């Protein structure tokens, strides 16, 4: 593992939801680098490992730290929640890696919230889907809005990450209002809180009801496509064996 | 596990890319049901287990088989490649489950090709993205076309599943032609073959070049968004730390 940094997706949090590959990389690492909350989620198995962290929003510093530790000859694993390549640190590592060309990067995939949340809720992403983050820290809101509209027009099932935070309390409501301009109020939806951690909570509802739900930064939201149904309190998007009803929402495409 | 069927995502194929949870469920199962190719990918660990299968395209029969075996009191694991809830059997199980209300269903998520392929290629899905299958076995081609257009207009990164098969040799070419009406020829793209199996092959290229690549049913294709770049032969979609260049492709939204 010399002169190579592993960027590791740890999945939703529980060790049993990590892959064998990810566990093996962490076992072999000299130092585990990550956001403090994720490092804490790692259980006893990694208690003795050296751990290093930078605060939230100091992701660039965290990546540099990983390269600097690797330069010292340490085997470094940079840990991300979910999948390292889905809103994770993988791309930033490759960008910063331009300055550390003698150090290789390998991404170890993990279970992202779209997969783990969908499994709790039923099968909401069982056909073509989009993943959209409502966080406008790194993306202009206009771009997020444009993507919500495109997703609705394309009749995609949608997984929404980061639907809310302390500073963005009404963002899910704003997103639902945008979607409601294209989709029916009764569209089948749902959300999952604390996936793969203590206190997992799954709720199915209509799009109109979703608009008024209280969600937080640990919630993943799912919007069905035109053929999605709630069956026995599970949100189900069909594979396409049935003929989906025509939604007529794409007339201007 | 009585009266409960586990619908298990096995990831791309290698045992080390399965989660501990998935392995544990398979360990405890009496019978493993799945498409023959996936059953064969399971290694020695499960050699002694009873295995049952139905041919390709007989997915409905496979689900019924799972319920019938569970009714006999067996602990059943229905196995899908990748994630069971992403083009997998999860939603069909819930639909057929309407006729077997005394049997519970639990979905165990796995690493889907969007995650595992992205990890091989770099970080192509490190911002909002769409997953689209080009298979028109269960979806009208017009719907696929509509989704490709929506994905392009929304400036999503795109993962394309099932880009080709014996009967659909030119489908990736057709998809590229649709995208090229909205995206520049130089758009950063890539594809991965045989992810997590023998003979993994990763290629980066432009959208124009992608149009003429030979791909097969074991290929996953990735189209970057407007800000994606190829860095040291890796396809990188930025998290958004940089201001993305304006693409002006969405004037009619």
From TrEMBL, chains A, B:
InterPro entries: 4pyrrol_Mease (IPR000878), 4pyrrol_Methylase_sf (IPR035996), 4pyrrole_Mease_sub1 (IPR014777), 4pyrrole_Mease_sub2 (IPR014776), Cbl_synth_CobJ/CibH_dom (IPR006363), Precorrin_MeTrfase (IPR051810). Pathway: Cofactor biosynthesis; adenosylcobalamin biosynthesis. The keyword S-adenosyl-L-methionine applies. Keywords: Cobalamin biosynthesis, Methyltransferase, S-adenosyl-L-methionine, Transferase. Its EC number is 2.1.1.131. Gene3D superfamilies: Cobalt-precorrin-4 Transmethylase, Domain 1 (3.40.1010.10), Methyltransferase, Cobalt-precorrin-4 Transmethylase, Domain 2 (3.30.950.10). GO terms for biological process: cobalamin biosynthetic process; methylation. The keyword S-adenosyl-L-methionine applies. One of its GO terms (molecular function) is precorrin-3B C17-methyltransferase activity. Pfam families: TP_methylase (PF00590). Residues 4-210 form the Tetrapyrrole methylase domain. NCBIfam families: cobJ_cbiH (TIGR01466). This is Precorrin-3B C(17)-methyltransferase. It comes from Variimorphobacter saccharofermentans. The lineage of its organism: Bacteria, Bacillati, Bacillota, Clostridia, Lachnospirales.
